[in-house]
Amino acid sequence: MNPVEFFIIKCICVYLSGVGFGLIVNLPHRALNIAGINAFIGWLVYYVIINTWGGLGSANFFGGLCIGVASVIIARWKKMPSILFDVPGLVPLVPGGQAYNAIKSFAMGSYQAAFSYLSEVIWIAGSIALGFIVAELVNKIRLRFERDLKKLKQFKKF
């Protein structure tokens, strides 16, 4: 299988993971497709950064940031809560493999490897959470800017 075919299969699987998790958490059906697209967009940002210039932390940060910002935009467009698009969007970024390896290493008695995996899990989870915090900050700044602009327009009418 050539790399392009492999990349396309990855993209389809990421989209399906967002839709599948949306089905598991009982998302409204009109939000499933968009949740899968949001998961794909966040993962694509992660994939580009991890394969070009970034490390694990920055790739997850920008992936989380992208998912957070896109969720707010989609929520306003669909008139639904943004959390409906946040959670399925996160599924491709969650460090499940590292968490599994950490628990397995603890069980096997390899504590140094377990702590290494555990620190990776904490680093990834913290990066994703920080991305969401910055996305909320961006949204609050945007809302304040829109409110101030509206007040300025009202003031100029007088």
Automatic annotation (TrEMBL):
**Subcellular localization:** Cell membrane
What membrane topology is annotated for this entry? Multi-pass membrane protein
GO BP, one annotated term = succinate transport
Q: Which domain of life is it from?
A: Bacteria
What Pfam families is this protein classified in?
Answer: ThrE_2 (PF12821)
Q: Where are the transmembrane segments?
A: 6-25, 32-50, 56-76, 115-138
Q: Where is the Threonine/Serine exporter ThrE domain?
A: 11-138
Give the keywords, sorted. Cell inner membrane, Cell membrane, Membrane, Transmembrane, Transmembrane helix
One GO CC annotation: plasma membrane
Q: Does the keyword Cell membrane apply?
A: yes
User: Which InterPro entries did the record assign?
Assistant: ThrE_2, ThrE_Dicarb/AminoAcid_Exp
According to its UniProt record, which protein family does this protein belong to?
Answer: Belongs to the ThrE exporter (TC 2.A.79) family.
Annotated PANTHER family: SUCCINATE TRANSPORTER SUBUNIT YJJB-RELATED (PTHR34390:SF1), UPF0442 PROTEIN YJJB-RELATED (PTHR34390)
Name of this protein: Integral membrane protein
Source lineage: Bacteria, Bacillati, Bacillota, Bacilli, Lactobacillales
